[in-house]
Amino acid sequence: MSLQYIVDAYNIINHPQFKPRRKSSDIQSSLAEFIRLNRLAGSGKNRVILVFDGYPPHGEKMPEENSLICVFSRMVEADEVIKKLVEKSGQPRNIIVVSDDKGVQSAIRSLKGRVCGVEEFICGGKSARVLDAALEEREESKVSYSQMQAINAEFKKKWLD
């Protein structure tokens, strides 16, 4: 089963982890290259739709491959285009929308699509894994009730007597 990623493009472009390989005014190609080189969409069979606000830049060639296309919202917001793409899909469960916009995330969930925050998309869930590891470590270092009582008793002797 291949997936389809619908990406709120400016959410990624404005994220501190987005680092284009080369300086270019062609932000669309830079973003497409960033996603492709970092394999952010996983399998090459997965499709990526980059949704940008506004109109395409005049005279610039848009990145377009079998698995990646750019869409411009023109006179509406990119958020509306993203919602319509999911609404029109026959299989919203196979769609992952990448956006940090809470309104978009809520709408996509109500349409039975999946959502992914930009941080998770770019970092591959590393942030979540680091957090889980810290929680596990904290769980392992918990002190039993009897140990806590013994420590408290020792502190009372040293500080209160």
Question: C-alpha Rg, in Å?
Answer: 23 Å
CATH topology of the largest domain: Rossmann fold
**Count of β-strands:** 5
Q: Indicate the structural class.
A: alpha/beta
Write the layout of secondary structure elements.
Blueprint: E1 4-8, H1 9-13, H2 27-37, E2 47-52, E3 68-72, H3 78-88, E4 95-98, H4 102-110, E5 114-116, H5 118-123, H6 126-140, H7 145-160
Parallel strand pairs: 1-2, 1-4, 2-3, 4-5
What does this structure look like?
Helix content is 45%, strand content 14%. With 161 residues, it is an alpha/beta fold. The protein has 2 domains: 4-124, Rossmann fold; 125-161, no CATH class. It has a 5-stranded parallel beta sheet. It is elongated. The termini are far apart. Mean pLDDT is 83; it is low at 127-136.
Q: Any key phrases for this structure?
A:
161 residues, alpha/beta, five-stranded parallel β-sheet, 45% helix
Produce a short descriptive summary.
With 161 residues, the chain is α/β, with parallel strands linked by helices. It has 2 domains: 121 residues, Rossmann fold (3-Layer(aba) Sandwich), CATH 3.40.50; 37 residues, no CATH class. It contains 7 helices and 5 strands, in the order βααββαβαβααα.
